[in-house]
Amino acid sequence: MESVIQEKGSLSIHTENIFPIIKKFLYSDHEIFLRELVSNAVDASQKIKKLASYGEYNGELGELKVVVKLDKDAKTITISDNGIGMTADEIKKYINQIAFSGATEFVEKYKDKGEDGKIIGHFGLGFYSAYMVASNVEIITKSYKEGSEAVRWICDGSTEYELSSVEKEERGSDIILHIAEDSEEFLESYRLKGILEKYGKFLPIQIEFEEKIINNTNPIWTKSPSDLKDEDYLAFYKELHPYSEDPLFWIHLNVDYPFNLTGVLYFPKLKNDFQGQREKIQLYSRQVFITDEVKDIVPDFLQLLHGVIDSPDIPLNVSRSYLQADGNVKKINGYITRKVGDKLSEIFRNDREGFEKKFDDIGLFVKYGIISDDKFYEKAKDFCLLKNVDGKYFTFEEYREFVKANQTDKNDTQVWLYTSDEKKQDAFVQSARKRSYDVLSLSSVIDSHFINALEQKLEKISVKRVDADTLDKLIEKEVALESVLSTEDQDTVKKLFEEVAGSKSAHVQVEAMPVDELPVVITFPEFMRRMTDMQATSGQKSMFGDMPLMYTVSLNANHPLISRILHAENAEDQKTLAKQVYDLALLSQGLLTGTDLTQFIQRTVGAM
């Protein structure tokens, strides 16, 4: 393509080393050059569309499209659009005069910021991101304005440029990147396709690469909810997460004051590993992908949701410090929390039965919100459900009324009993049921934290695991049972079991319990178990280190077996019987393992 040089000149910048600075400070994000250039091309296409709608352009619009071409042999990438194009004067204005406050200031301000250096857009450097991968960049462009001549601009990364006239029939721009040696990874089609699909999957103008359109120009969050059916939302979810189960339900966000925000958030079926569920919300700005690290925009507990958020109030190139300080971001955060709370309240009020069926899947999310966000708790306390071992669901207030008569202790505090493993703690659950006590099922990965939150937020409520102590100590009443054993017998049986336990971690005590309770009950203090569970959930090492957990061995003074042990013919028989009963108690807590378990089985089989 021949051209006549009309002008040579220098770019209006404050220092000659701007391009090395761009490359150095934005290197970790070097793939975004394609996002920036394609976004510019999309903007140019949308502008011609608007001008036509205003009656300021009367020519044929044609099919608006951005085409990305790779020429591996020539080592070029070309981004073409048929948008508004530029005149020679506009190139001088928008390309030659870099909207930049000074490279020196840039270096000083961001040299210690690490990842926060990704801020091209703030300084009008979108086009110049091309120089992160290109040694030479050409622009061939023709303005939509009547009588405009096509022009060619070329710059090799120094501050020198050439501007010349050129032949070009159609309006629009071609940006031709001559790829540098250290960036030849971008001359692979799979690499370009991956970047285009990542950042441009939902751009509003068609993007063509290798003769295929790679984007959905009209995703559902740009449409009115009244124009959409459930199938549309489910189909879009599959587009985002093709291998996931269908979501439980969703929220369509749409607000234009005091900030602009659209999007769709889905409630997935959560697994018991909430760490693995994160980073499933994608943040867009005018349908251009920004990031899936939405920590400062979306409250922590809502990061368990999936979906998209789009806000033009958040710039494309955004730093963490910007997100943390920006007022709009904080408002968006609060708005999303409120909308999620309102949606869950609405479902609970309108379809209690359906909500209960979903609660096992969303309970982890709701509990996480209660633990971490006080504003969410104010709404969630009315729809967060507790489930007992019979599979019945209660709100907090419903459960308070349900157990009030039977599970209020002598200090007028309600004791809510729970199990974290119904099979393992079955003996303790059955003992509680004999007393007509109700037992909650709290077995999710964050329930140790949730229990703490309940005790802090609900007055005169104490939550205890059903095997944390003997029932008479878990729920202390005014009337205490009397022991059938004399003080001397109690001392004898206590010493016998201390010898059988043979561990400094075991604290042996004799208690007066009902006759139908277990003869020996092994329990762990609630505070110690809960602290250990919470630290395990957080991935921290136990504060108790490698020390064995202290546990209590409670001997039921009123159980016939204890009396039988005391009245055995000789000391050897006493010890054998005590060992057998003690091992059964260990077995019920999962504490009998290895050689001890093998010997127990052999003794049991031998006695049959």
Automatic annotation (TrEMBL):
Keywords: ATP-binding, Chaperone, Cytoplasm, Nucleotide-binding, Stress response. NCBIfam families: PRK05218.1 (NF003555). The gene is htpG_2. GO terms for molecular function: ATP binding; ATP hydrolysis activity; ATP-dependent protein folding chaperone; unfolded protein binding. The keyword ATP-binding applies. Belongs to the heat shock protein 90 family. It comes from Dyadobacter helix. This is Chaperone protein HtpG. It holds the Pfam family HATPase_c_3.
